[in-house]
Each structure stands twice: as C-alpha cells, then as structure tokens.
Amino acid sequence: MGMLVPTALAARLLSLFQQQLGSLWSGLAILFCWLRIALGWLDPGKEQPQVRGELEETQETQEDGNSTQPTTPVSVNYHFTRQCNYKCGFCFHTAKTSFVLPLEEAKRGLLLLKQAGLEKINFSGGEPFLQDRGEYLGKLVRFCKEELALPSVSIVSNGSLIRERWFKDYGEYLDILAISCDSFDEQVNALIGRGQGKKNHVENLQKLRRWCRDYKVAFKINSVINRFNVDEDMNEHIKALSPVRWKVFQCLLIEGENSGEDALREAERFLISNEEFETFLDRHKEVSCLVPESNQKMKDSYLILDEYMRFLNCTGGRKDPSKSILDVGVEEAIKFSGFDEKMFLKRGGKYVWSKADLKLDW
C-alpha cells in the first residue's frame, strides 16, 4: 500500500504536465500562424481556412462595431394628427387618437430633429389640413423652411381641404405637395373610401396641380395599389398631370391599424399578390416618374413619428412606439425605430427633394 500513493501522485503530476504542455503547444501553433501571416510566409495562392476564418470573423466584428453608430434622421415622416375626413379601407395610420401636440412643442421636436441631422420633413396624417383648417400645418411648414432652413419640406394630403388661400400664405415655404390618388374612376374611389360626395376627385386633382404650378410647389402623386384598382390603366392621366414623382405602393397590412382585433380598418379584402403588383408596374413602365414600393421595400424603410413624436417600429408587423423625442432626445428614441437605412437608400429614399434643385419649368 505504501508504494501506491507515490505512484498515483506521480501519474497525476504527469497528467497535469501533459495538459499544460498541450495548451502551450496549441498557443505556440496559433502564434506561429500569425507570424507566418505577418511575415508573408503564407502562399497567397493557397486557401488557409482556419486562419482566414478567424480573420474574417475579426473583420465582421469590427464592421458590426461600426454599425452601432447613431442613426441620422435625414428624412422623417411626421404624422402629427390621426384625424381624417376620409375612411380609406386600407389606411395604414388610423384615427386611434385625436391628440395633436401644442404648436410650440411640435416646433421644439422639429428643432431636435434638425440638430440631429434632419434634411427633409414630410407632414402627414390622418389628413394634415384638417387641423385648424390648415393653419397649424402652415405654421409648421414656415418654421421648418424659414427658421430651421431645411432643404426639403413636403406634405402628403388627400387634397380635399386645400384652398388657394393656403398656397398664397404658405406656398413659398413648401417644396413638395403629394396628393393621394388611387384611381381616376370616381366609383373606385368611393369603394376605397376616398369618395368626396358631389366633388370629383379627378377634377380637384387637376385644380391642385394648377395651383402647385402657379405657386411654385413641386407636385407629386401617391397611389396605393389594391384589389379595386390593380387592373386600372392610369398611363394617360399620370402623363397629363406630369408629377415630379408618382409613388406607387403595394397595399400593406399593419396589425393594430388595418388588421387585427384592435384595428379600426380591415384591409384584408384590399390585398393583392406580389405578382399582381408587378403586373400593374409593368403596365405603367413607360411612365418615367414612377417610383414603385413593394411591401418589402416600404415596411421598415421609413422613419415615422406619431402624434406624440415617438418613432414607430414596424419590424414586427405592428407600429410599436419608442419613447418621445421630447422626453429622451432623438438619439435615444431612434434606437427603437427599426429603421432599415440600406432599404431606405435602395428604394430611392434619398433624391433631389428641394424645389430649388428640381429646375422645374414653372
């Protein structure tokens, strides 16, 4: 028995020595590989999978580190109101509240965005001309152009409440007016929810086009392609109106807005397939100002602020709000926006958006 203890101890010590030697050898082997790279000993024609993989992993980690830089809010869509005088069945931003920020608070938020890198602000709704008969909107437009000196100020409207007086008062501060027009058939507009009663949507569109030219505002058209207009041929109408851009969207479901139990709209009956959307685009491929946006391109490529100035994250198929930029600042709130900057650039989100640079024949 007396000899068993030293023997066992010796075996244990030998095992530990072998483990340490193995670790030392592994470390030396890795060090040797790096020396070969540094001194140019590796044959450039030969693949070195293990070392190359380690280098690529390091490079990817560095690139990921760079991606944590704060997102710059170059272009922001500010939906300052959810109220609307229409009832479009596929609406992406429904009247879930009637809240509108006090004017000075809205200006403070816009200043914060400007300080964070804002270049283009787009006012939308709801219907933005509904608040104070367009005066609230006009004051924001003037503030953004005159005091913030933003390169581009734009509006998306259904056009039904715009009067020429507004252009006289605020037209000089507006770069682009986008009018939503989904059909040039009044019966289809009524089915969608854009019916104006005795008013003719197409005639009103032509009047707005004329005012934009008279008051030097770039004219744009937005269309949502859906079950009721997917077979329509709009070529002649669009060419006659000659907008600077014709933005064509594929009807999109957003849970809590136009889909789901807590939604105010049921847009499922308006949906079209990707193939049907492509067929519509192909029918209008000769329209040079056409800018198509499929569901994939649209969903995460917009920076959207709601009526409380919270960024809305659509990555989960809903509009999940961040904290308000008025409370936590732009840099903190934008982290939760879900914004896909690569898709924003891919869909042409950055374009010539100042009327001073458009060189239009007024």
UniProtKB/TrEMBL annotation:
Q: How does it sit in the membrane?
A: Peripheral membrane protein
Q: Where is this region: Disordered?
A: 49-72
PROSITE patterns named in the record: RADICAL_SAM
GO CC aspect terms: endoplasmic reticulum membrane; fibrillar center; lipid droplet; mitochondrial inner membrane; mitochondrial outer membrane
Reactions it catalyzes: CTP + AH2 + S-adenosyl-L-methionine = 3'-deoxy-3',4'-didehydro-CTP + 5'-deoxyadenosine + L-methionine + A + H2O + H(+)
Superkingdom of origin: Eukaryota
Sorted alphabetically, the Gene Ontology BP terms of this entry are: CD4-positive, alpha-beta T cell differentiation; defense response to virus; innate immune response; negative regulation of protein secretion; negative regulation of viral genome replication; positive regulation of T-helper 2 cell cytokine production; positive regulation of toll-like receptor 7 signaling pathway; positive regulation of toll-like receptor 9 signaling pathway
Molecular function terms in GO for this entry? 4 iron, 4 sulfur cluster binding; catalytic activity; metal ion binding
**Where is the protein localized?**
Endoplasmic reticulum membrane; Lipid droplet; Mitochondrion outer membrane
Tell me, in one coarse class, where this protein mainly resides.
endoplasmic reticulum
Which Gene3D superfamilies does the UniProt record give? Aldolase class I
The record's InterPro entries line, in alphabetical order, gives: Aldolase_TIM, Elp3/MiaA/NifB-like_rSAM, RSAD2, RSAD2/Viperin_antiviral, rSAM, rSAM_sf
Indicate the segments forming the Radical SAM core domain, all copies: 70-290
Which keywords belong to this entry?
Answer: 4Fe-4S, Antiviral defense, Endoplasmic reticulum, Immunity, Innate immunity, Iron, Iron-sulfur, Lipid droplet, Membrane, Metal-binding, Mitochondrion, Mitochondrion outer membrane, S-adenosyl-L-methionine
CDD domains per the record? Radical_SAM
Q: Which cofactor does it need?
A: [4Fe-4S] cluster
A Pfam family per the record: Radical_SAM
Quaternary context: Homodimer. Interacts with IRAK1 and TRAF6. Interacts with FPPS. Interacts with HADHB. Interacts (via C-terminus) with VAPA/VAP33 (via C-terminus).
Q: What does this protein do?
A: Interferon-inducible antiviral protein which plays a major role in the cell antiviral state induced by type I and type II interferon. Catalyzes the conversion of cytidine triphosphate (CTP) to 3'-deoxy-3',4'-didehydro-CTP (ddhCTP) via a SAM-dependent radical mechanism. In turn, ddhCTP acts as a chain terminator for the RNA-dependent RNA polymerases from multiple viruses and directly inhibits viral replication. Therefore, inhibits a wide range of DNA and RNA viruses.
Task: Name the protein family.
Answer: Belongs to the radical SAM superfamily. RSAD2 family.
Q: Specify the protein name.
A: S-adenosylmethionine-dependent nucleotide dehydratase RSAD2
Query: From what organism does this protein derive?
Result: Mus spicilegus (Mound-building mouse)
Taxonomic lineage from the root: Eukaryota, Metazoa, Chordata, Craniata, Vertebrata
